[in-house]
Every structure is written in C-alpha cells, then in structure tokens.
Amino acid sequence: MDTFMLDRKIQLFISTVEEGSFSAAASLFQISQSAVSQQIRLLESELDVLLFDRNGYRPVLTKVGQCFYKHCKVIYEACIEAERQVRLLATENQDCRLRLGVTGPMEEHDLPKIAEIFKKQAPKVMLDIKKITFGNGYKGLKEGILDVAFGIANDFKDKDGIRTVVLMKHRICVVCSLQHPWAKKSMIQASELADQDIISLSKNVGSQFYLDFLKAFEKDGIVPHIIKEVDSLEEMLLAVRLNQGIALTSREVITPDKTICMLDVAKTHHHAEFCLAYRKGNQNPCLPLFIDEVISYYKKP
Prior knowledge:
Blueprint: H1 8-19, H2 22-29, H3 33-47, E1 52-53, E2 60-61, H4 63-91, E3 96-102, H5 105-121, E4 125-131, H6 137-142, E5 148-152, E6 162-169, E7 172-177, E8 187-189, E9 197-201, H7 207-219, E10 225-230, H8 233-241, E11 247-250, E12 260-266, E13 273-279, H9 287-299
Parallel strand pairs: 3-4, 3-5, 8-12, 9-10
Antiparallel strand pairs: 1-2, 5-13, 6-13, 7-11, 7-12
Helix pairs in contact: 1-2, 1-3, 1-4, 2-3
C-alpha cells in the first residue's frame, strides 16, 4: 500500500526487495522499470552505499541492503498503521457508503470475511455490492458508479485516472472433463494445448482480458483451436463437463468437485493477477480504510 508519509524511493526499495525484481516493483507502482532503477540508484547515492548486487539475473540485497531493508520495513509498517488509526478516528461517527464491483468466485468467497472484519472497525459504513464483468469495472469507476472494482489487473492497465493494487497472482490451470484423455494427468506442457478444442470466455467478459488471452497463446507459439466462446464462467465449466473441450482459467476461481479435473500448465505465458482498482481523487473518506483492510486480508498467510 502506498503511503504519503514515506519517501517514494524507500517504498520502491521495499517493493523491489519483496517482489524480487525492478520490473515487478515497477508493475506494482505502474511506472517504468528504468524509473525504479533510477530511484534506487539515487537512494544508493544519497546513502553512499550499494543496496543491491546486480551481477546476477535478479538484484540481491548486499549485507548493508539487508540491514537497511529491516529498518525501512519497520518504519513503513508504522506509517501504514498511523494512517489507518487516523482514518478510523476520522470515520467512526460518519455514515457513508462504499460501492463495490465484484466479478466472480474470488470475491464471493473472500468478501464476506473482509466485510465482517471491516464492519467491526467501521460499523456505520454500508457496503453496496454490484456484480460486474472484467470489462465494465473501469467504466463504473470512471463514471463514479463504483468506488472499488475487483478484477484482473490488465483490465485496468494504462487507464487514465485509475490506480490498481495487485492482491494475488492466479495459478493458471487447464480444466477438463472426467472423460477427457488428460483426466488422470496433474500437469501438461503449454505446447500440448495446440491440438486441443478450447472453450474460451468471450470479448463480452472483457476485451482486454480476451486480447491478453490470445496474446499468451501467440507467445507460447500456439494458434488456439477455439471452438466455443461463452459469456460466463458457469457456461464455460458446463461446456467442459459436457466434454465439448478444455478451458484455461485459474485455480482460485474454481470450486473443486468430482465432475472436472484441474491440471497445472508448465512453460506458458498465460497469467493473471487479481486486483482492486479505484479512481484517483475519490473523496469517499471510507475508501482508504477499506483498501487497507483488503490488502491486509490478502497478505495473511
């Protein structure tokens, strides 16, 4: 979570350590990798030390860097907690409403638990929940219909006036029926997808999501044989159960049952990041407190 109380260079340093690379930290803050590298070098110049060993594939903390990270993390957590306490005091006597857009099983499973915790801290805040698709979350934020939209990070990428917070990385899998030849497998290679009939979510679910889906096949060197496009996860899984084809999705959105099989996919460019998004400049006083609670929930082991 971004905090105004702590120098941006420190936040980028912490994120680089925890995300494992300059590029991952850049993605988190929605800036370029070169901008992150520049800020880290500036920080090293100000301290007159080397914080990272850059000789390997990924940056590795030096001994000095490890010490600096330890102290920075303590300060960062203190800043976050100070802001949280201030927001709690500012909203404790306010009646306000948060309008949330949810896309599917992830929120349906986790949101009741988040809401229960949040309500204990802000009992007068009403959560108004609306079902959305990947595609219309951005529209809802832009038009002021929603305060928060949950969805896939790429659907909000490079959207003017929108900030995203990545909550978790999905584990991509293949779903097939019990009658499919892969039913007894636990993993397949991405290259094996080339000869399969594929059932896909359509553009109606989200245009950017759909484009990313096709682009991942292209990067894997595959021309997908998509035999059917559907407008919901439920339709997709029904088609799979009827053995009409296989589907690619994430383990986190599937409820395991005895009618389908889930297989991991090795060496693939297919990926997805679950996130929340909100509009910059949103003045709802309860919004930062809710975002903090969501981030805290997904950070728990």
